[in-house]
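Customer escalation, tier 2.

The customer says the design service returned an amino acid string that "doesn't look like it belongs to this structure." They asked us to rerun it and document both sides in this ticket. The original structure tokens are below, unchanged.
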């Protein structure tokens, strides 16, 4: 068990111990900050790999999880927790974990598959649908990437009480005998038995451009669609659509205004907008790269962005809502306190020097100090014990807002411009054919798609910026500043 305070230089001592044949080293340095501990752990793991010594991490469960996910390094043997931290873990965190594995296809695997391509429904012509781009079959991989001499496969245990493994990356519609032959060419799979053979499916879907942003059918009020029926593929995508469609179905029967998630609100909003505005001619997968505002659509601020919306639709409990309010109050109190100015004391400059930051010669706001790359909220607590203590969630929010404040403000400015167009609503019965100045293609596309607002209209392929300018002028001439739901037109004071 290490203690760097007892050694002049910890790493040489660790190497001496590892070279002696010690089975396990526990890296105990719990007084470090998480980032410092992670840096040290990576260096110790390199030493342990050299001598094949097990390395147990200590206290920092988040660091341990991060390192376990990094398959490019020698893996920690486990996590040693103080009793208090162990008892604080949730039941979910205490569940027994299973190891996953990697293997690769090889030349023999490829030859067996290529020799039997004509027996694959996807290549023989029995199935005519477009294959999914982001989860290609093993046959697709070999045809599309003929120069690759191997393909990575991820082996996932199906549970604690079974020996069954899921072979991620080897989806196929080849006959059973070919599947058996090809799988047994994989390292580690020489004697494998197939419990459920792979197969291909072909499914019908609607034209998703027939949907509103609520995922309700434009022509059939009260009918909502989700999942593969919308031309999408993927578990997360199906769950997201089911959530949005289900909420809006419940709001519809309750005669409440619908829930519309914009592209700046949530990834679900990007998904719904892409499907209803652009459609798809192949199975759609929601990728984060499709979102323009990824800097704001973060996991750490999801509660701040969406809990209020969930509350209005009846999905958030009083307890959860109260938790959000406490977090907001923490953040607000901390931001007020960070307006205070501290003098350029020796203590302050020593702290900055220890964090590789330049010194200050005049008084400086605490909030300005927090914007520095290597300064965190706990550093400021050492300078100003009067600063309010924060929960981990609130502290993370404060630090992110400080470190990325300039970039976040730029993105907020983009969103404000974006919302100007999103707030210019287009009535469902808007007569595009009668608008002079609209190009023929734009009139046809707008009539067919019937976008909900000017922003959505601008994202339709074939509608140019000039067409949007014409629409904007027409809306202003008509004085149309009303919002509407799928059921009724409502006045400005009822706008969602």
């Amino acid at each position: 068990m290490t203690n760097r305070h007892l050694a002049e230089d910890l790493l040489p001592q660790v190497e001496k111990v590892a070279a002696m044949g010690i089975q396990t080293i526990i890296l105990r340095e719990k007084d470090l900050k998480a980032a410092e501990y992670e840096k040290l752990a990576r260096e110790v793991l390199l030493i342990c790999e050299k001598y094949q010594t097990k390395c147990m991490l200590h206290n920092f469960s988040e660091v341990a999880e991060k390192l376990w996910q990094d398959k490019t390094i020698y893996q920690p043997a486990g996590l040693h927790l103080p009793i208090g931290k162990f008892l604080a873990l949730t039941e979910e965190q205490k569940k027994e974990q299973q190891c996953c594995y990697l293997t690769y296809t090889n030349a023999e695997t490829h030859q067996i598959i290529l020799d039997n391509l004509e027996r694959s429904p996807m290549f023989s012509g029995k199935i005519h649908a477009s294959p999914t781009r982001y989860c290609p079959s093993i046959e697709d991989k070999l045809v599309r990437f003929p120069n690759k001499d191997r393909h990575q496969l991820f082996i996932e245990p199906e549970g604690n009480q079974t020996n069954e493994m899921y072979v991620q990356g080897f989806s196929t519609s080849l006959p059973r005998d070919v599947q058996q032959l090809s799988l047994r060419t994989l390292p580690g799979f020489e004697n494998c038995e197939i419990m459920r053979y792979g197969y291909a499916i072909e499914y019908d879907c609607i034209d998703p451009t027939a949907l509103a942003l609520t995922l309700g059918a434009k022509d059939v009020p009260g009918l909502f669609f989700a999942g593969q029926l919308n031309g999408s593929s993927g578990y997360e995508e199906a769950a997201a659509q089911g959530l949005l469609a289900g909420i809006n179905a419940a709001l519809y029967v309750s005669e409440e205004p619908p829930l519309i998630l914009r592209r700046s609100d949530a990834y679900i909003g990007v998904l719904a907008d892409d499907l209803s505005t652009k459609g798809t001619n192949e199975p759609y997968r929601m990728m984060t790269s499709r979102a323009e505002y990824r800097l704001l659509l973060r996991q750490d601020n999801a509660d701040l962005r969406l809990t209020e919306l969930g509350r209005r639709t009846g999905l958030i409990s009083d307890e959860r809502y109260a938790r959000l309010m406490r977090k907001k109050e923490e953040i607000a109190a901390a931001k007020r306190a960070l307006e205070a100015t501290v003098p350029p004391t020796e203590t302050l400059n020593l702290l900055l020097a220890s964090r590789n930051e330049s010194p200050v010669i005049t008084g400086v706001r605490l909030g300005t100090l927090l914007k520095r790359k290597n300064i965190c909220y706990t550093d400021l607590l050492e300078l100003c014990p009067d600063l309010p203590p924060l929960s981990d969630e609130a502290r993370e929010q404060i630090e992110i807002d400080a470190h990325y404040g300039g970039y976040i403000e730029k993105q907020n400015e983009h969103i404000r411009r974006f919302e100007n167009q999103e707030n210019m609503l287009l009535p469902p019965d808007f007569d595009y054919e009668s608008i002079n100045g609209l190009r023929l293609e734009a009139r046809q596309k707008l009539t067919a798609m019937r976008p909900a607002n000017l922003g959505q209209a601008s994202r339709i392929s074939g509608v140019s910026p000039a067409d949007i300018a014409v629409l904007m002028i027409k809306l202003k001439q008509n004085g149309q500043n009303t919002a509407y739901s799928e059921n009724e037109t409502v006045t400005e004071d009822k706008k969602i």
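Tier 2 assessment: The sequence is consistent with the input. Residues 208-294 form one domain. The first helix runs from residue 10 to 19. Sent an explanation to the customer and offered a walkthrough call.
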